[in-house]
Amino acid sequence: MFSSYIAGFTLGLSLILAIGAQNAFVLKQGLKKHHVFAVCFICALSDAILISFGVAGFGVIVSEFPLIEVISRYAGAVFLLVYGLKSLYSAFKTSHQLDAEGELPASLMKTVLVCLAFTWLNPHVYLDTVVLLGSISTQYEGTKEWFTLGAVSGSFVFFFSLGYGARILIPIFKKPVSWKVLEFVIAFIMFAIAASLLLG
Fold first, then answer.
1. For residue range 49-72, what is the model confidence (pLDDT) as tens digits?
2. Closest CA to 5 of 135, 133, 148
3. What are phi and psi of 79, to 5 degrees?
4. Does the first or last residue of the chain, that is N or C, have fewer Cβ atoms within 10 Å of its Cβ?
5. In angstroms, rounded to a whole number, what is the distance separating the alpha carbons of residues 200 and 27?
Protein backbone atom coordinates (compact mmCIF):
# COMPACT_ATOMS: atom_id res chain seq x y z
CA MET A 1 0.00 0.00 0.00
CA PHE A 2 2.75 2.43 0.97
CA SER A 3 4.66 1.77 -2.26
CA SER A 4 1.50 2.52 -4.26
CA TYR A 5 1.04 5.76 -2.32
CA ILE A 6 4.65 6.83 -2.98
CA ALA A 7 4.32 5.94 -6.67
CA GLY A 8 1.19 8.06 -6.97
CA PHE A 9 2.75 10.92 -4.99
CA THR A 10 5.96 11.09 -7.03
CA LEU A 11 4.19 10.71 -10.38
CA GLY A 12 1.54 13.29 -9.53
CA LEU A 13 4.24 15.70 -8.35
CA SER A 14 6.40 15.21 -11.42
CA LEU A 15 3.52 15.96 -13.77
CA ILE A 16 2.89 19.41 -12.30
CA LEU A 17 6.46 20.51 -11.49
CA ALA A 18 7.06 22.13 -14.88
CA ILE A 19 6.43 25.87 -14.96
CA GLY A 20 3.20 26.17 -16.89
CA ALA A 21 0.39 28.71 -17.13
CA GLN A 22 -1.36 27.51 -13.98
CA ASN A 23 1.84 27.43 -11.92
CA ALA A 24 2.82 30.91 -13.09
CA PHE A 25 -0.58 32.20 -11.96
CA VAL A 26 -0.24 30.56 -8.54
CA LEU A 27 3.27 32.00 -8.15
CA LYS A 28 2.06 35.50 -9.01
CA GLN A 29 -0.83 35.29 -6.54
CA GLY A 30 1.57 34.05 -3.88
CA LEU A 31 3.92 36.97 -4.46
CA LYS A 32 1.05 39.43 -4.18
CA LYS A 33 -0.54 37.57 -1.25
CA HIS A 34 -3.88 37.77 -3.02
CA HIS A 35 -6.40 35.00 -2.23
CA VAL A 36 -3.52 32.52 -1.92
CA PHE A 37 -5.39 29.85 0.02
CA ALA A 38 -8.37 29.90 -2.36
CA VAL A 39 -6.12 29.67 -5.43
CA CYS A 40 -4.03 26.81 -4.02
CA PHE A 41 -7.09 24.94 -2.81
CA ILE A 42 -8.95 25.26 -6.12
CA CYS A 43 -5.92 24.06 -8.12
CA ALA A 44 -5.34 21.10 -5.81
CA LEU A 45 -9.03 20.18 -5.55
CA SER A 46 -9.42 20.36 -9.33
CA ASP A 47 -6.44 18.04 -9.70
CA ALA A 48 -8.00 15.68 -7.15
CA ILE A 49 -11.25 15.57 -9.13
CA LEU A 50 -9.45 14.99 -12.44
CA ILE A 51 -7.20 12.31 -10.96
CA SER A 52 -10.22 10.54 -9.52
CA PHE A 53 -11.97 10.70 -12.89
CA GLY A 54 -8.89 9.26 -14.57
CA VAL A 55 -8.56 6.38 -12.12
CA ALA A 56 -12.30 5.72 -12.43
CA GLY A 57 -11.91 5.31 -16.20
CA PHE A 58 -12.82 8.77 -17.53
CA GLY A 59 -9.62 8.73 -19.59
CA VAL A 60 -11.25 6.13 -21.81
CA ILE A 61 -14.13 8.54 -22.49
CA VAL A 62 -11.70 11.31 -23.46
CA SER A 63 -9.95 8.90 -25.83
CA GLU A 64 -13.26 7.78 -27.35
CA PHE A 65 -14.53 11.33 -27.84
CA PRO A 66 -11.58 13.43 -29.10
CA LEU A 67 -13.91 16.42 -29.59
CA ILE A 68 -13.59 17.04 -25.84
CA GLU A 69 -9.84 17.54 -26.26
CA VAL A 70 -10.28 19.73 -29.37
CA ILE A 71 -12.76 22.08 -27.69
CA SER A 72 -10.57 22.32 -24.61
CA ARG A 73 -7.47 22.98 -26.71
CA TYR A 74 -8.87 25.95 -28.65
CA ALA A 75 -10.73 27.48 -25.71
CA GLY A 76 -7.57 27.16 -23.64
CA ALA A 77 -5.43 28.75 -26.36
CA VAL A 78 -7.73 31.79 -26.60
CA PHE A 79 -7.73 32.22 -22.82
CA LEU A 80 -3.92 31.97 -22.63
CA LEU A 81 -3.45 34.48 -25.45
CA VAL A 82 -5.71 37.00 -23.71
CA TYR A 83 -3.98 36.52 -20.35
CA GLY A 84 -0.56 36.72 -22.02
CA LEU A 85 -1.47 40.03 -23.65
CA LYS A 86 -2.66 41.28 -20.28
CA SER A 87 0.71 40.41 -18.70
CA LEU A 88 2.60 42.01 -21.58
CA TYR A 89 0.54 45.18 -21.22
CA SER A 90 1.20 45.16 -17.48
CA ALA A 91 4.96 44.92 -18.09
CA PHE A 92 4.95 48.05 -20.27
CA LYS A 93 2.37 50.01 -18.26
CA THR A 94 4.01 53.07 -16.73
CA SER A 95 1.82 52.94 -13.62
CA HIS A 96 2.65 49.28 -13.09
CA GLN A 97 2.37 48.32 -9.39
CA LEU A 98 5.79 47.34 -8.14
CA ASP A 99 4.92 46.57 -4.52
CA ALA A 100 3.96 42.92 -4.12
CA GLU A 101 1.72 43.71 -1.17
CA GLY A 102 0.48 47.11 -2.25
CA GLU A 103 -1.66 46.22 -5.23
CA LEU A 104 -5.40 46.17 -4.69
CA PRO A 105 -6.44 42.52 -5.14
CA ALA A 106 -9.03 41.41 -7.66
CA SER A 107 -12.28 40.19 -6.15
CA LEU A 108 -12.35 36.64 -4.84
CA MET A 109 -14.94 35.69 -7.46
CA LYS A 110 -12.84 37.00 -10.35
CA THR A 111 -9.74 35.27 -8.99
CA VAL A 112 -11.61 31.98 -8.61
CA LEU A 113 -12.96 32.17 -12.17
CA VAL A 114 -9.50 32.88 -13.61
CA CYS A 115 -8.05 30.03 -11.56
CA LEU A 116 -10.75 27.63 -12.77
CA ALA A 117 -10.10 28.69 -16.35
CA PHE A 118 -6.36 27.99 -16.01
CA THR A 119 -7.18 24.53 -14.73
CA TRP A 120 -10.18 23.33 -16.72
CA LEU A 121 -9.37 24.97 -20.09
CA ASN A 122 -5.94 23.34 -20.21
CA PRO A 123 -5.99 20.18 -22.34
CA HIS A 124 -2.59 19.16 -20.95
CA VAL A 125 -4.32 18.68 -17.61
CA TYR A 126 -6.67 16.13 -19.15
CA LEU A 127 -3.89 14.32 -20.97
CA ASP A 128 -1.54 14.21 -17.97
CA THR A 129 -3.90 13.92 -15.05
CA VAL A 130 -6.83 12.02 -16.52
CA VAL A 131 -5.42 9.89 -19.33
CA LEU A 132 -1.83 9.28 -18.17
CA LEU A 133 -2.46 8.85 -14.45
CA GLY A 134 -5.65 6.94 -15.18
CA SER A 135 -3.85 4.45 -17.40
CA ILE A 136 -0.92 4.02 -15.00
CA SER A 137 -3.31 3.42 -12.09
CA THR A 138 -4.39 0.17 -13.75
CA GLN A 139 -1.01 -1.25 -12.69
CA TYR A 140 -2.06 -0.90 -9.07
CA GLU A 141 -5.21 -3.01 -8.94
CA GLY A 142 -5.99 -3.76 -5.33
CA THR A 143 -4.15 -0.70 -4.06
CA LYS A 144 -5.49 1.79 -6.61
CA GLU A 145 -7.05 3.97 -3.91
CA TRP A 146 -3.61 4.40 -2.31
CA PHE A 147 -2.11 5.35 -5.68
CA THR A 148 -4.91 7.90 -6.12
CA LEU A 149 -4.41 9.29 -2.62
CA GLY A 150 -0.69 9.65 -3.29
CA ALA A 151 -1.25 11.56 -6.54
CA VAL A 152 -3.82 13.83 -4.89
CA SER A 153 -1.45 14.46 -1.95
CA GLY A 154 1.28 15.43 -4.41
CA SER A 155 -0.97 18.11 -5.91
CA PHE A 156 -1.89 19.58 -2.53
CA VAL A 157 1.74 19.64 -1.37
CA PHE A 158 2.93 21.25 -4.60
CA PHE A 159 0.34 24.00 -4.96
CA PHE A 160 0.37 25.09 -1.32
CA SER A 161 4.19 25.03 -1.30
CA LEU A 162 4.29 27.15 -4.46
CA GLY A 163 1.61 29.60 -3.32
CA TYR A 164 2.94 30.22 0.17
CA GLY A 165 6.60 29.57 -0.64
CA ALA A 166 6.51 32.43 -3.14
CA ARG A 167 6.67 34.83 -0.18
CA ILE A 168 10.36 33.99 0.20
CA LEU A 169 10.91 35.78 -3.12
CA ILE A 170 9.07 38.97 -2.12
CA PRO A 171 12.28 40.92 -1.26
CA ILE A 172 13.49 40.31 -4.82
CA PHE A 173 10.23 41.65 -6.21
CA LYS A 174 10.56 44.92 -4.31
CA LYS A 175 12.77 45.94 -7.23
CA PRO A 176 10.79 47.44 -10.16
CA VAL A 177 12.67 45.45 -12.77
CA SER A 178 11.78 42.12 -11.11
CA TRP A 179 8.04 42.61 -11.62
CA LYS A 180 8.58 43.63 -15.22
CA VAL A 181 10.70 40.53 -15.85
CA LEU A 182 8.06 38.34 -14.18
CA GLU A 183 5.31 39.82 -16.38
CA PHE A 184 7.44 39.21 -19.49
CA VAL A 185 8.16 35.63 -18.43
CA ILE A 186 4.48 34.94 -17.72
CA ALA A 187 3.47 36.44 -21.08
CA PHE A 188 6.09 34.27 -22.83
CA ILE A 189 4.82 31.14 -21.05
CA MET A 190 1.21 31.92 -21.98
CA PHE A 191 2.06 32.60 -25.63
CA ALA A 192 4.29 29.50 -25.90
CA ILE A 193 1.64 27.20 -24.46
CA ALA A 194 -1.09 28.78 -26.59
CA ALA A 195 1.08 28.25 -29.69
CA SER A 196 1.70 24.62 -28.76
CA LEU A 197 -2.06 24.09 -28.37
CA LEU A 198 -2.89 25.69 -31.73
CA LEU A 199 -0.03 24.03 -33.63
CA GLY A 200 -0.02 20.71 -31.82
1. 988 888 887 656 766 777 766 776
2. 148
3. -60, -45
4. C
5. 26
